[in-house]
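INPUT
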Amino acid sequence: MSSPILTRRAFGRLSASLLATTALSPAIAWAETPPGVLVVGQVAEPQSLDPAADTAVNDFRILVNLYEGLVRYKHGTLEVEPALAESWTISEDGTEYTFKLRSGVKFHDGTPFDADAVKFNFDRMLVDTHPYHDTGPFPLSFFFSAVTETTVVDPQTVHFKLNAPYAPFLSNLAYPTGLLVSPTAVAKDGKDFGRNPVGTGPFKFKSWKSNESVIIERNDAYWGDKAATQAVIFRPITDANTRVAEMLAGGIDLMVEVPPTSLAQFTPPQFDVVEQAGPHLWFLILDCKEGPFADKRVRQAANFAINKEAICNDVLEGTAVVAAGPTPPAFAWAYDKSLQPYPYDPDKARALLKEAGQEAPEITFYVTQGGSGMLDPVAMGTAIQADLAAVGFKVKIETFEWNTFLGKVNPGLEGKADMAEMAWMTNDPDTLPYLALRTAAWPDKGGFNSGYYSNPEVDKLLDAARTSTDQAERATLYKQMQQIVHDDAPWVFVANWKQNAVTNDKVSNFSLEPSFFLQLQGVVKS
Amino acid sequence: MGRYILRRLISAVPVLLGITVIVFLIMAMIPGDPAAAILGSYATPDNVARLNRELGLEGPLWQRYLLWLWHLLHGDLGRSYALNRPVLDEVLERFSATLVLAGASFILCAVFGILAGVVSAARQYGFADKAITFVVLIGISVPAFFLGMMMILLFAVDLRWLPVSGMYAIYGGGDLMDLLRHLIMPATALAAVATGVIARLTRGAMLEVLRQDYIRTARAKGVHERRVIWGHALRAAMVSVIPVLGIQAGFVLSGAVYIETVFQWPGIGRMLVDAILKRDIVLVQGGVVFVAACYVLFNIAVDVAQSLLDPRIKT
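OUTPUT
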């Protein structure tokens, strides 16, 4: 029994060959990104690179570098400025828009950009009989559902006719759904256009390897300022911990959506954390129709009882700020700065509950496990439950996976729950209140007012704001709406998320936009 | 033998058909529909209905199933709406990545599992046995994704010996060396549990065989101990090890889901998770049926191998 099973020499040979395969050359070439090439860590694989077909912010971050629209958001704001259109006029009644187009612009495939191309883009999305309508579906085409006709006036002029005045039209044109694609390329690739994108932007498409990378290169024929990097590589890294590890190891130069708990690992001078508040609102929908929250005092009590500061600073590690009302401050022109968040005041909450004759209301609370813009919904839900319990509420939490959750909440809370978490990111101050606060937006009428809030005054203000084409007048109307909604408290206003990103020390001239898009044209990578 | 294989193949047909029905029903039953998942915040009933119509998700369930099956039998797995490309392209591309990972992992766990099992059986209660048992128990007990994370922190972030994630370097790479570098950590993490299981099982099987009379006879005849162990005993023990290898191969394939997520490996496990979350029904169906078919075929292959090794197993 003494002869060896594996001789010592054989063992030695085995381990030597193992070592040879594992401890490869010590040069760390793969952990270094080359100069002039920016590597971006994305949160997911894009669905498509066809702007008309996309719905996710993750995809928009790539699209805005490949394509341009007639208009765009001015740097650092959510206000609209000219892009491929040099100027425009709006008719008195707000139903006709005429755009004068920039001349000499070409798509990456050489197709000239003109009024015909613009018409092609909108007809493709909106006209069922258009030869390339079948390259969809186009989930967000309803952004332009007010458009009844797009007309080519001359090669440099295009005209839109709307069925009714619709103030958010311009800002919808600045949204990625309004980015313009090359008609020739759509004709060539058909349904596969989304994998072979052609636009007019500062970068042009190079390659897309499923679940590995999307590579875009500088467009040297760009009409405006040329991109400062030679190429940008977008890498989808779904697992947040892996994304953080890649950033620490130098495999990526820039990452978005850094988990709050990982922020402390990124310290200067090696790393730079960038933050930007966006048009985001995290709130609780309250059932205003039946149950305890039918009483306004109980709704206000919930607003007083929840310690929003603690949620933003402790649960979210400072990646969000306390929300004051239904409109995020990122819409600077429409936001009422005089609005103050409900302070954390448990005594006031108890007093209100007593006054309403409901000292221990029992409520069912829908919580989601995660979802677009939902931040850290389980931890936040638990903190909210504890705060509410402290003033007398008896809160029963029911947790659901995101799509299931939407399937329960969107049809309305009646008969199921009294309160539900929700978050929205929008591009115009009109969108969220119009779709989720009007009486005409109750779920049975096709809207998202899942808590059945109804105030004729708010309805009137929102309708008026939508049809006015004067921004100052719209601002006044939105501010009045915010005051009323703040007092009626159909929601508990909790947080406005600050988007964050980390760059390493080779990246300069980077900033985040309030739109949450990722404009990389001016970014320098050494 | 030919008839045996044919019989097994025919009996796999109802299994596969059953799988298509189950997958189809599960995807139909889970709450939330694809249109709502695509539309996100904008999922008004109008928009959802319109999009479902465009995605071809109208009509009774049985009708949609038969239509899907009809296309499937013609080799058309449909078009993924979340990825906007043919399901078959995506599945083949992703499955080959998984095969590389699972294959490497399977080789690791088979080789090291059997090696460790044999060594510890031959050295029962000796130092090697105890050391191997200790390591093997750790391998079995630590969840693969945790092991993966720890490996990333140590070897990629701190030591910078290996890349954190992905299958190839996105610039400059692409050769076999590059693939191996990316493969080491995920394949090891994925193999850990299976290696442990195989080692324990091989050890047990070997111990049993080593007590048999013919082993004693062989030793009495003066056959070299190395030949007794690797020649006589292992061949007999393999009969009970091989079916477990088949099961572990399935285990490695399913474990790939976590490992692919941690290491951002572009494989089919992660594809399925993403597809389920996005309610990309067509992609889930296509992917599951494909994987199931491979698994069924693999098991048939294992059974055949077993009957070749042990003539007592009736064919």
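end of record. Residues 225-263 of chain B form the longest helix (39 residues).
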